[in-house]
Design brief:
The complex is a heterodimer of chains A (255) and B (190). Chain A contains eleven helices and twelve strands. Chain A is an alpha/beta fold. In chain B, the strands form two sheets. Chain B has a nine-stranded mixed β-sheet. Chain B has a four-stranded mixed β-sheet with strand order 6-5-7-10, covered by helices on one side. The chains are: A alpha/beta (255), B alpha/beta (190).
């Protein structure tokens, strides 16, 4: 049976791993390779590297560190941030990344999802969705890496989830912005709705503060993976303990 | 020397890193004369069946791979093209393994691609290496008499298929942590 994935997300800004509260006030938490090695040894199931400076500043993800990570770790990893073209995606995959994740570029050019899926296969193409509950509905936001550039798009989360699958996305990371960084738990209601319309793997993001939050999102929403950053970086939820805890409560994870 | 087959433009970095980290010498080639110098050959797990088969045919590697007596390891798509055919683009394969490759039917409780760590149970040579391996596949082959490891996603499927000098694995040993490295070490050392 396929196991549920525990995915540390390393938000990278100017070559350092950072994570702030509700996307603002970023603070350095460590070197990329030190954290990547640590998580690999702790039995993390995969890693996501999200260059949050790229989409907001119109820069391409700086790739030197991608190769360094690929040379060292032997679990899957995904790179996100500013991937706007086939050429950029190819460069990153050729350095050893397993998947690329697009968010803002997918909103601004939805055809890119199809092009990437046709070129590299759906299993390489992750679409990240930043969803914010406002005016009684879930709206998709773009350029969320920086508070000054954050923009409400013209898309509603529900229909965007359907569209990205139709266009060839092989996985969806749904980041519930209202929960992000506040550690009150994943947005169960929204993720449950998303699960009902997702035929591709669905990854929960935003809100993890303790082990119960991981248990709840797997138990209630049957998501395929749970992504988190600060609780892992600050070692408040050690991954080995988390996975033992989940296994003891009947959630299938790889130990 | 380990020969890694180049399908053109595909991402070989993960396989090469693994072979290199395990201390084996390797080269990458799409030329059958060069591949003839290899002791073992790896068909890496990147790309889609139609493109991969087209590349092999263009380079005149399809017949070569089918007839070689060298140990060959096909990973993911590299395994799938060893079957008679794949429903991915209605592609004819190398017909080394019996049977056809088909697509998982997606459901919200069984999303496709089948992505993540799944349990693999080997019989024979690798039985002590049974455990969790990383998969990223939308297509699969049924369990058959040539199946040497089983995994399950809704139904059981062939995680490893073997005949004579040919081995195909649906999982990615190069991305399966220390257990995956042990598997590769075993194959490359045998």
């Amino acid at each position: 049976m396929l196991t549920k994935r525990i995915i540390p997300c390393l938000d990278v800004k100017d070559g350092k791993v950072v994570k702030g509260v509700q996307f603002d006030n970023h603070e350095d938490v460590g070197e990329i390779n030190d954290l990547a090695n640590k998580y690999s040894k702790d039995n993390a199931d995969e890693l996501v590297f999200y260059d949050i400076s790229a989409s907001t500043k119109n820069e391409v993800v700086e790739t030197a560190w991608v190769k360094k990570v690929a040379d060292k770790i032997n679990i899957p990893f995904c790179v996100a941030g500013g991937i706007k073209s086939i050429r950029i995606a190819e460069a990153i995959l050729n350095l050893g990344a397993d998947k690329i994740s697009i968010n803002t570029p997918a909103i601004e050019n939805p055809e890119l999802i199809t092009e990437l899926a046709n070129e590299f296969g759906s299993q390489c193409v992750v679409v990240g969705i930043d969803s914010y509950f406002q005016d009684q509905q879930y709206n998709v936001y773009s350029r969320t890496g920086d508070a000054t550039t954050r923009t409400k798009s013209n898309k509603l989360t529900h229909s965007w989830i359907k569209e990205v699958q139709d266009r060839g996305a092989g996985e969806i990371v749904l980041n519930c912005m209202n929960q992000d960084g506040v550690r009150n738990g994943y947005d169960i209601k929204q993720l449950l709705d998303a699960r009902k319309i997702s035929r591709v793997p669905l990854i929960a993001s935003g809100g993890a503060g303790n082990m119960d939050h991981f248990y709840n999102v797997f138990k209630s929403c049957n998501v395929d993976g749970a992504l988190a950053a600060s609780v892992f970086h600050k070692n408040e939820v050690p991954i080995k303990l988390l996975k033992n805890n989940l296994l003891n409560r009947g959630i299938r994870v790889r130990i | 020397m380990i020969g890694v087959v180049d399908y053109g433009g595909a991402n070989h970095a993960s396989v090469i890193n693994a072979v290199n980290n395990l201390g084996f010498e390797y080269f990458i080639s799409d030329n059958k004369k060069s591949l003839d110098d290899a002791e073992k050959i790896i068909l890496p797990g990147v790309g889609a069946a139609p493109n991969v088969m087209q590349q092999l045919q263009t380079k005149d590697l399809d017949a070569y791979l089918k007839l070689t007596e060298k140990p060959i390891l096909g990973i993911c798509i590299g395994m799938q093209i060893m079957y008679e055919a794949s429903s991915e683009g209605n592609t004819d394969g190398l017909s080394i393994f019996d049977g056809k490759v088909k697509k998982f039917e997606p459901r919200t409780d069984k999303p496709v691609p089948h992505m993540g760590w799944n349990e693999v149970r080997f019989n024979k040579t690798y039985s002590d290496l049974s455990g969790y391996y990383y998969f990223a596949n939308s297509y699969y082959a049924d369990v058959s008499e040539q199946t040497t490891a089983i995994s399950s996603y809704g139904d059981e499927f062939s995680a490893m298929t073997s005949i004579n000098n040919f081995t195909g694995v649906q999982f990615h040993p190069e991305k399966s942590g220390s257990l995956g490295y042990q598997f590769l070490q075993r194959f490359l050392s045998l």
